[in-house]
Amino acid sequence: MTLAELENAKAESLKEIAAANDAAAVEALRVKYVGRNGSIPALIKAMKDVPKEERPAFGKAVQAWRAEVEAALAAKGAGSVGEKSVDADLTLPGRWWGLGVKHPLSRVIEETAAIFGRLGFTVADGPELETKFNNFTALNTPAHHPSMDRSDTFWFGEDCLLRTQTSPVQIRTMMANKPPIRVICPGRTYRRDTTDATHSANFHQIEGLYVDTKPVSLADLKSVLAYFAKEMMGDGVTVRFRPHFFPFTEPSVEVDFTCHVCKGKGCNVCKQSGWIEVAGAGMVDPRVFGHVGYDAEKVSGYAFGFGVERIAMIKYGIPDIRWLYENDVRFLSQLA
To answer: Which of 324, 332, 336, 329 is nearest to 203 (CA)?
Structure first.
């Protein structure tokens, strides 16, 4: 095709487009001239057959034809090259993507803060990278305790670690304040644990501490935890306290709630016991007071700590802790 023939073809194509009076006709002309097998793409493919000295002018003329055809098609409402025209009803409402919901762990933390807030507790926070003193020594943990082993704890050097509990926040709070102290300490904790239905290497805890110059007893602790269980889980929950040992409390107890899966009958989640361990608690050991500069003869107090994931599993009937970290919107939306 000579340049003169190309100009005639361009004029004819633009005349046809201008005369098109419906979407079907415009689409047919789009396919005819700029479609994959249209006239203009065919000319571009045939450029190799044009004499070398004529290629620059010929190529420029073809590109100009293409640009004018596409502009004319666009003015008629056709899609761009390689697209089909779409008839859209602009009066239709937009898509509703839905509002997000709070994650169950966030809900439990906020609800726990509200429950203990009614009892006079405030929220304290601290760093996730801790010192050996705050995480172990000040909590009366002996040097040979298994929790200090590198197979149980994420260490960074000799004195820095990812906290294994939020109890170090209690130590920091006592070192910075004088009694009375009444705080809860929610946050992330880390342990080298094998992930299964009830365990994770990264989980959340809420520790609580009450210290006063007035006498504080184990009965006070039990009443507070029983109140929390009732407010969080409802009147149907059963709570039991079992004697236990923790380095930083004496006497110590473990607190169990009825298993959320089998309702106390026994299953794989509760290891056939009918109970789920929720919290560890007890009276603050006098040696802990010594580490933070308190006179153990003048103060007394209790401490407790429980897993947020365990509470969420019981409250929402979640059989596997791993579901809380998979970000499956189908699962999370059920808890809205």
So the answer is: 324
Tokens, residue 320: 């596997």
Omega within 30 of 0 (cis) for the link into 168: no
In this prediction, the residues of the chain whose per-residue pLDDT falls under 70 are 78-88, 98, 198, 260, 335-336
Residues 161 and 146: their CA atoms lie apart, in Å, by 15
CB of 219 closer than 8 Å to CB of 157: no
Which residue, 75, 94, 127, sits at the end of a domain?
75
In a shared domain, residues 129 and 21: no
pTM listed for this prediction: 0.67
* Euclidean distance between CA atoms 74 and 24, whole angstroms: 14
What token pair was written down for 42? 């065919």
Give the pLDDT of residue 80.
44
Whose structure tokens read 């008839």? 87
Q: Which domain holds residue 24?
A: 3-75
120: left (phi over 0), alpha (psi -120 to 50) or beta: left
